[in-house]
Structures are given as C-alpha cells and as structure tokens.
Design brief:
Elements lengths: L11 E4 L3 E6 L7 E6 L1 H11 L4 E8 L2 H13 L1 E2 L3 E4 L5 E8 L2 E7 L15 H5 L3 E5 H5 L2 H16 L3 E5 L9 H12 L4 E2 L3 H8 L4 H10 L4 E5 L5 E5 L2 E5 L12 H14 L4 H15 L12 H9 L6
Amino acid sequence: MAASEATGAVQIVALGEPMVEFNQVRPGEPGYLQGFGGDTSNAIIAAARQGARTAYLTRVGSDTWGDALMELWRAEGVATDGVARDAQAPTAVYFVTHDGDGHAFSYLRAGSAASRMVPAGLPRDTIEGARFLHVSGISQAISASACDTVFEAIAIARAKGVQVSYDANLRLKLWPLARARAVIRETVGLSDLFLPSIEDAQQFTGLDGEDAILDWCFEAGARTVVLKLGKAGAVLATPSSRERIAGHAVRAVDATGAGDCFAGSLLARLAAGDAIAQAVRYANAAAALTTTGFGAVAPIPRPEDVRGLLATAPDRK
C-alpha cells in the first residue's frame, strides 16, 4: 500500500494538467524514455511518496494514456475520485530534449482533456476537507475555462481556511507575458504560499535581484514566499524576514520536474507538522535527488533517500 493510502482525510489536493512524457535519453539521438509529467501531477506524486494523504483533480482522455495516468496515481496512492474522463479530447503529451544549455520542452496539448476543465466540475468536498490546495500558472494558461477553474478552487479553499500553495511555472508558449503577469499577480494575493523559481520570477516581474523580486511578491499580497534557486537552494521569505537555505551538490542529469518535486515535498512535510524552514530544507534535498535520474516522476525520491542526503549536509538541522 502506498503511503498516502493510509486512513484519514486528504491532506493535500492538487489541480492541473497531467501529461505523458517522452524524455530524450541522449542529446541528439532519437531514443526517448516514456514517463509521466504535468507540474501539479508531479507535485502530488512527490507529496504522496513523502507520506502525505493526497488527491488529484483533473480531466484526462478516454484513451490509452488516460488509462496509464489513472493507474499511475492509483499505484502512488493518490486519490482519483476527482479525475474525470473525457471521450472527446485527448490526454496531453510532451517531449523533453537535452543539449549543452539544458533541457527544452515541446508540447502536444492544444485542446487536451485538462484544458476542458470547468468550475462546475470541481468536487467541493475534496477541496474543503484538505489542509492544502496546490495550483499552478500552467493550469491557468492552458485555457480560459481552466483558469476560471483554478480561481474557483482557490475561492472554495479560502472560504474553508484551506491553505493555498501556488507555483507560477511560467510557460510563455502557452500565453502572452502581459496576461501571465496580470493573472500571476492576482493569484499571488490569494495564496498562502508562493513558490516561484528565480528564472520565472525574473520574467513575470521584469526584475533581476532576489530582494527586488521578493519585494514585488509582497507588494502583490504574498504571505510567505519560497524563491527557488535551483542547485543554489532557496530563499524563504515573509514580509519581515528572509532566510537563504543552501542546496545540495549531486550528479544531475535531468532537471525535469525538480521544482514540482520541491513543491510536493515541501507541502508533505508541512502537513506532517514540520516548521517551514525545516520543510524547505527537506524539499531542497528531495528536488536535488530527483535531478539524478531521467523524467519527472520516476526519480522522485522516497523519504529514506532524502533523509540520507540531509544527514550529509554541512548545515543539517
């Protein structure tokens, strides 16, 4: 039995677009490893692997890939009562290629089942009973109805005191920068925990320095921000404090989904009762470990591996 199948109410619910992944194993060669992705799906699987009780809300096609995703979530212990099947739209697919500059994404997601999410389809009870709702900018970018669905889920959560976690996950292939900036800024003000990467934040704020970016976040209404810095770690910030938390040196081969692993692992540790600084340290280690394998889901670590890496850290606490 997966950890998150333990008895008790769902602690973390995520909403978004799951995808089937084809990840290039060697740069310049045509071999691809089939896996799974989608930012919030990656995050909820990471949370489940760390022991949280989880649920996912989405739509997938009534196709082979939709079946595969349903089986994946069930195997990981992620509740699927909030997953709808769509006979008129496909499950989304993406490809990851690698070169000396890092990794790049190519998507086949236009008109995907998830892009047909609507607010009326949300299972209110699942959201209202959770401790955390996790959403992302990608879900807001894939269609107007999906964007409306994210905002409705946030409204349901806030009305019941469920904490909202938000990762901007800016993808300019999906929407214009001006619209992205407006929607992200609005959502930041509705979120309890904002989890942007430094690269995304530089684009949606138009700023470079960490302090200037964090100032922008708090002016937008952020309550707590974890600014992800990749291998350099993260900055944990509130309106009155800022703390840099170091990253971990690992032999990285593929950074796909690392930020999603960070988000899910962070929420899992918060749900378990960790203080937020302790949870960020754990999430840093989990995200580092997921870069040591190919794909967004397969390399997500288990707690024993994360704690093993933390035990070797110079600043372990």
